[in-house]
Amino acid sequence: MVPAYAPDVLTLEQYVGEIRATFDSVTVRVELDAPRQAHVDRLSESVDELNVSTTRRGKGGAIMDGFDALADTHDLLAFADADGSVPAASLHDVVRQVAEGTADVSIASRRHPASHIVDHQTVVRRFLGDAFARAARWMLPTQCRDYQCGAKAVSSAAWSAIGHHCYEPGFAWDLEFVSVAGSLGYEIAEVPVDWEDHPDSTVDPLTTSVELATALVDVKRRTDAIAESPRYHDVQATTDSTLMKLGADDDGD
Question: How far is CA 235 from the centre of its chain?
């Protein structure tokens, strides 16, 4: 599914077409926030399912609504950002980890040493993103290189547990999702991708950085509580404690 707010409709339609051409079987659902009627009319003809919210739910709110709607009829759930910064072929690599049973959760990573960055972010966005990733690795129980890259997949069974602990409505949802999944003991695959920055994104680097920094404290508190709960220790008694597949030749920085 694709969460969208004020999208470039042509870019989104092209991306949906690429997804359909890449996957053998897929239901493309778009969660569209506060749209113009022209966008609703156009997208209703080009996607399998279109859910429209008259208000802006935020990225996290849209993803959670989409996952909840699809979970009863699909064994595997995935989302990608509407700007298509993660190409359909790379999204397929992310989804394949869950489809083949390699991991319960799979996340795209721009910071994986095998990733290919087609077009870098601005210096400011890269600096803020790198600083945030380091802070999150230092604070959170779940360790990865890139919490925020806009493509993730999860089995429906895992989502039924993870979703109960996700509350962040905005861009911090990615961070929360990864941290909750790891704290519940689910194995996470971090997948290298091709990635291209889109400067017309609705992400504002300064306001989003403030949002993420504030959310990081709340997410740490909630995931620490999960990790300390009896249910977590019951899960850990029967599953591997390794939560991340990080390359042995890289320390994650």
Answer: 24
SS3 187: coil
> Which one, of 232, 117, 126, lies nearest residue 179 by Cα?
232
* DSSP 3-state of 53: strand
User: Which residue bears the tokens 């890289």?
Assistant: 250
Nearest to 126 by CA among 106, 111, 142, 107: 111
* DSSP code of residue 121: P
Please tell me what DSSP assigns to residue 52: E
Grouping H, G, I as helix, E, B as strand and the rest as coil, residue 120 is coil
Per-residue pLDDT of the chain (253 residues; tens, 9 = 90+): 999 999 999 999 999 999 999 999 999 999 999 999 999 999 999 999 999 999 999 999 999 999 999 999 999 999 999 999 999 999 999 999 999 999 999 999 999 999 998 865 566 667 677 788 888 888 998 999 999 999 999 999 999 999 999 999 999 999 999 999 999 999 999 999 998 876 655 566 667 777 888 889 999 999 999 978 755 544 443 344 334 444 434 444 4
Instruction: Please state, in angstroms and rounded to a whole number, the distance separating the CA atoms of residues 180 and 194.
Output: 26
In 3D space, the residue among 139, 243, 238, 246 whose CA is nearest the CA of residue 185 turns out to be 243
Smallest CA-to-CA distance from 30 within 17, 208, 105, 97 is with 17
CB atoms within 10 A of CB 196: 15
Dihedral sign computed on CA atoms, order 17, 3, 136, 230: negative
Instruction: Look up the CATH superfamily of 2-238.
Output: Spore Coat Polysaccharide Biosynthesis Protein SpsA; Chain A (3.90.550.10)
Cβ pair 67, 159 in contact under 8 A: yes
